[in-house]
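User: Run a structure prediction on this.
Assistant: Running it now.
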Amino acid sequence: MSFLLAADIGGTNSRFALFALKDLSAALPYVELVREQWLPTAQYGTFAELAYALRLPDGSPFAPPGTQQASLGIAGPVRDGSCKPPNISWSIHTDEAAAALDIPTVLLVNDCVAQGYACLLAARNTQTHAALNITELHAGKINMAPFALVGAGSGCGKALVLPEARMVLPSEGGHGEFPFRKDEEAFANLLRDDLGGEIVVEMLASGDGLRRLFAYHCGEDLPPAEICARLNPPRTAAEQKTLAWFARLYGRVCRNFVLDTMALGGLYVTGGMAMRVPVLEHPAFLDSFRDSKNMGGLLRDVPVFHIRSQRAGLGDAAAYGMIRAKA
């Protein structure tokens, strides 16, 4: 039996899965999940240390000997087979990863691009749609126009999916400057004094962004995990305001990306923040997403979906690996 190792390496967690490949003669072989393991990314000083920790309980390798390929989705820009993720302390290169994993072929792909393949498959396959637990937040006009993927977690990732071409294009728009409004200037100035200079999108649409908003409105500087618990559901007026602001800012980030790319086929929202706090269910999210003087009508026609499966990046890192292997 042939195996494929897939990974979704994020700033908080690194998720690994071993897939068995079946029906190898098909254009896209069938994959079956064999096992998976999660490791805390920040606990390891190099990718080699992370790979060494990827073991079964008896100490044997996670991927059996003879595994020929690994496909790794990583939260950062991939260039010439290497990546220095902005929210991880170490870099990764395909040759070093191959040696650390003892797997001859390693492919690196931006994690949002990997998740974009999940969206691409889900748009064409109702079974994939169900497997990824995709919730429709707003029923717009379904078509084959490009669609956008936005995911806030440790950072804020973006990708553009082109259904007709079956392509996913990466973006580092999470590092673009955040567009504050006049009534947010007091908060913006506080951030500039604290962080110095430019405030980028992922300083707000992320776990750290939620932490900063909570400190501003509630006067407590808590870890994001504790804040998520406090906001499920928010009880005090300050907590309610924190969630409303986060929903509004996140909706604005999504709206701007859809308008920048004319992704009228749909918006898919993914990432840990939307799973841990009810940000997408808050009315401020869709209100902010559609809030455009000239393009509000256009935005009301864009369907909005929430990918609730944390395995999306794993399954589609695997799909990316198989597509590349067939190319």
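The chain is about 40% helix and 25% strand.
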